[in-house]
UniProtKB/TrEMBL annotation:
Protein name according to UniProt: Damage-inducible mutagenesis protein
Gene3D superfamilies associated with the record: P-loop containing nucleotide triphosphate hydrolases
Length: 281
């Protein structure tokens, strides 16, 4: 007499619960290995490199594949300035985003943003030329966040697109998952630039927080020093796990070499901190 499994008579809800329990029992390391294989296959189909180096060894050594993943979603947050407030369009966060865009190789850069308000300003082309040729830039203006996310997702599927960036204050987990899947499938990086912190739970591969830092001036002079940014890697999904504290670097931009470099600790230790306090105060 055949034995009938009790699962045959189980309701759809109970079978779904059992499937979720079975998925949860799969070791996280195995799930991550499968995701890495899928991502590598997507990148191979797209003909792109799996990752792109930022040119900063201290940071690249922590990132998966030794650089920023191309087929992935990355989030960039503007941190509070000296006044404790976040500007709607922070120059440091926008500059860091432009630096990342310039590392992803040739092709069109799709930049999606909401319709400009009285306090909003368009990106300044001569300043962007420090990181990439402004002629590569394709700007899309959306009236709603839903339209912005739709334009980003469609751009990730278009041939000839090197990278897609979206400026938004919205935090939509569903849109984030769709962007992440589209980036993985086509091997095109997606960047979200926010003036507000994103949701704690996110599918992004990396999340960065950028804060402007006082520039170093020549002693005895009132000259304007090179731009400096305090960069925090607050999420590193596929990279080397960090210690208990969030890794942070003080970076300085060099206008001559067009490169970012870590400021040595000796130049921003206690003495440098006192100097920064004088500049801020």
């Amino acid at each position: 007499m055949p034995v009938i499994s009790p699962n045959v008579f189980a309701s759809p809800v109970s079978r779904a619960v059992a499937a979720n329990d079975a998925a949860a029992s799969v070791p996280a390391t195995l799930r991550e290995k499968v995701r890495r294989l899928e991502r590598a296959n997507s990148v191979q189909r797209s003909g792109r490199a799996a990752s792109v180096k930022l040119g900063i060894p201290a940071i690249d050594s922590l990132l998966p594949e030794g650089g920023l993943l191309t087929g992935a979603l990355h989030e960039i947050e503007a941190g509070p300035g000296p006044s404790g407030r976040v500007a709607p369009h922070d120059g440091a966060a926008l500059g860091f985003a432009a630096h990342l865009l310039g590392r992803f190789g040739p092709g069109t850069i799709l930049w999606c943003r909401r319709a400009a308000g009285p306090s909003d300003a368009m990106p300044y082309a001569p300043a962007l030329s420090s990181w990439f040729e402004p002629a590569r830039l394709l700007m899309v203006t959306a009236r709603r966040d839903e339209d912005l996310f739709w334009a980003m997702e469609e751009g990730l599927r278009c041939p000839g697109i090197a990278a897609v960036l979206g400026e938004t204050r919205a935090s939509d987990p569903t849109a984030g998952r769709r962007l992440s899947l589209a980036a993985e499938k086509n091997g095109v990086p997606a960047l979200l630039l926010r003036a507000q912190p994103g949701a704690p739970q996110s599918v992004c591969a990396t999340r960065w927080r950028i804060v402007s830092a006082p520039s170093a001036s020549t002693p005895g002079l009132t000259d304007v020093g090179a731009a400096r940014w305090r960069v925090e890697l607050r999420r590193n999904r596929f990279g080397t796990p960090s210690a208990d504290e969030i890794p942070s670097w003080l970076l300085e931009w060099n206008d001559e070499t067009h490169c970012l470099a870590v400021v040595p600790q000796a130049l921003h230790g206690p003495a440098g901190a006192r100097f920064e306090e004088r500049l801020v105060g």
